[in-house]
């Protein structure tokens, strides 16, 4: 009975396709709705959408290999859960996954600033100075004068001198600073999310 139903549905499909070919040309494709399992053995050329749904949990069961070119809208084959693509035996499917690696880039880590300041302080420098003083010595003599007598009072002076210390400031280099950069190794980690494709294999009953 099941095979008879399959043949009846296929006969209806062929009749509809033949009727569409014999009728006058229509610019608007007529949708073809088929309910129930359909077995197709051979090429099928359709000009228009085909909606195939199954009342049971089974999907389209290809009897042979379809040969030919579909004309018009694409054929959408879907089940209640997801879209199924029929592939031949021996088809290889690739499973991909993402891998994580680190990439380093150089950014600013601040800067070293050296500021010179001037500090004033009082200093004392030892120094030795000289000064002149006077002494008067008297000596008794008996001799004729060398200058005229009675010229009046006269004042005699003897200049005296002394050393006065002064401080002289001269800049001198007392220390040299050398600025260098050193490299320090830090241990760390970067985190991220990677994805992996997995395969779930299940048998679907017809």
Alpha-carbon distance between the termini?
16 Å
- Find the structural class using helix and strand composition: little secondary structure
- Indicate the radius of gyration in whole angstroms: 60 Å
Mean pLDDT: 74
Specify the helix fraction band: 10-25%
Strand order of the largest sheet: 1-2-3
Query: Overall 3D geometry?
Result: rod-shaped
| E-strand count | 3
Strand content: under 5%
Q: Give the uncertain stretches in residue-range form.
A: 1-6, 54-79
Question: Tally the helices: what do you get?
Answer: 1
Give the topology string: H per helix, E per strand: HEEE
Task: Please characterize this protein's 3D structure.
- This protein has 206 residues and is largely without helices or strands.
- The protein has a domain at 2-77.
- Helices cover 10% and strands 5% of the residues.
- It has 1 helix and 3 strands; from the N terminus they run H-E-E-E.
- A 3-stranded parallel beta sheet has the order 1-2-3, with helices on one face.
What would a concise description of this structure say?
The protein is largely without helices or strands and 206 residues long. It is 10% helix and 5% strand.
